[in-house]
Amino acid sequence: MNFLYDIGRVLLDFDFESSLARLLPEGIDDPHGRLERLLERKDDFEAGRIPEDEFIAWAIERLETRATPDDFRHAWRNIFTPNEPMWSVVDRLADAGHRLILFSNINSIHCPWIFETYPRFSRFHGAVLSFEVGAIKPEPAIYEHAIQTYGLVPEEVIYIDDMEANVTAGRALGMRTWQYDLRNHEAFESWLNL
């Protein structure tokens, strides 16, 4: 069986706000709003439509911080916590011979850094990463890229993602899908039943 795996809030939980808040000058007005505004261009960045250096310069300006680009990269990366129950499932699936493929909206600051930082990603046989493809989920182009690149038959794919729109798009193509909730891993295990 082929498994398509989202990364964020499936394999790795994340918290952008706590990490990026450290870059804000003390006493700055509306710190939460400033961090929220970084999301304005996040989708374009993850789709590879904005070069990394341009996004970082824009983000530093938005935050009104004296942080360097390297400071920003460090804060942007250090947001992750492994979801251990799901990694146990990954190990079981890989050991049983299933083909595992990462399928993620992600950016060039996080990749390949996460693969170096979390060597357990070596359990995966391939990856479809939005910033490399030039499209983000749930856009049809990224699903078609995954299908073509890995010779997938949608009806033979189990796709796990935390976002409803993304699993809906996968289901429309014929994939067996699960909208994952970090707070209820047991429901996923019951559904998977392997």
Please specify the SSE layout and strand pairing.
Layout: E1 2-5, E2 12-14, H1 16-21, H2 31-37, H3 42-46, H4 52-63, H5 69-77, E3 80-82, H6 84-95, E4 99-104, H7 113-117, E5 126-129, H8 130-133, H9 140-150, E6 157-161, H10 164-172, E7 176-179, H11 185-192
Parallel strand pairs: 1-4, 1-6, 4-5, 6-7
Antiparallel strand pairs: 2-3
Task: Describe the protein's architecture and organization.
With 194 residues, this protein is α/β, with parallel strands linked by helices. It folds into 2 domains: 2-13 and 80-192, HAD superfamily/HAD-like (Rossmann fold), CATH 3.40.50; 14-77. It has 11 helices and 7 strands. The strands form 2 sheets. Strands 5-4-1-6-7 form a 5-stranded parallel β-sheet, with helices on both faces. The protein has a two-stranded antiparallel sheet with strand order 2-3. The mean pLDDT is 96.
Descriptive key words:
single chain; Rossmann fold; 2 domains; globular
In short:
The protein has 2 domains: about 120 residues, 3-Layer(aba) Sandwich (Rossmann fold); about 60 residues. Helices cover about 45% and strands about 15% of the residues. It contains 11 helices and 7 strands.
